[in-house]
Amino acid sequence: MPEQNLEGLALSCKPLGENDRLLTLLSEDQGVIRLAVPGARKPRSSLAAAVPLSHLKLLVGGGSGLRRVRQLKVLRSYSGLAQQLEALAAAQALSELCLALVPGDAPAPGVLADLLMQLGRLDALVRERGCDLEALAIAVQGSVHLLALGGYALPLGRCARSGEPLEPPVGNWDWRCSLIPSEGLVIGALAGARVVLNASELALLQRLLRPNLPRRRDGELMGPLAVWLHLLELVEHWCQEHLGRRPRALNMLRSSLSTSPAPSWN
Question: How many domains does the chain have?
Fold first, then answer.
């Protein structure tokens, strides 16, 4: 196979042999692929920059089996996320979600671009010393986006049982809808539901399909911490049901923000 140019985000890097690394890369055209990076564990190697959360441009060669990285250029590094635990946990959770969603050696339209957008927001948050709540909101919104792009979108348009439009009556504090992970969202507070949302929480969740985070007119993020933790719980149950696992880094994110995630109904 001739040499090939690739661009993507390093999702993970593991030791391979004595001096090499095994790079797992998310690319637009080939989905998740695994590549050998010769000598990357040597301190003076020109390929030592093959590390997680780096946006890379690669020259790849090799025939059948594991292809090898010949040259590497860092387009952008997100290593600064390590300065804030919540931002790092959010980035790791989104990376884990991509690994679960994206098939190998198959195109993944829009996934890389959306993930890079969310990482850019997290990076700006760290640089500006923004609040931890925003890291949580980015993790939740990023998960909603990636699930939709990966074919496992949360069904936020209609009741899974009646087919009625999910139009939350904001201000009506008696209204509820329930997450039944095998079905979707069902109007009413149902026994056995994994998560029950009020009207304001569903309205906030529906807004996460948009490109930008939901903000008030003064620029402040909509929704208190307890509500965002509640939406995070919903995303986790959906991932567990439809992907067979949930991103482990979400536990780190939750524990860093709250030891008792209770929803707010008013």
Answer: 2
